[in-house]
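Figure 2 data, in text form.
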Amino acid sequence: MVARADRRLALDGSTCVEILRKCGFLPSRCLSVVNLCEIPDGLNVAETERFLRENAAAICGAQNHGGPAGAGGHAAPLQTS
């Protein structure tokens, strides 16, 4: 997991990873990189969870899983609005 040390997110890293896993973007049995650096500052818990779900492919990276249920494809650009 990659996160910025200069700020605190509304959700801890373990919770963010669990949300991404439940969305189907993290394999259960291999090494994955999760980049939490692009989560915008100032989001509350609900907004952070929504951001994670909407941007899971980009946060997890296409090399990790390719999408829910192994759908293949590439990471989409982050949606910040």
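Caption note: The radius of gyration is 12 Å.
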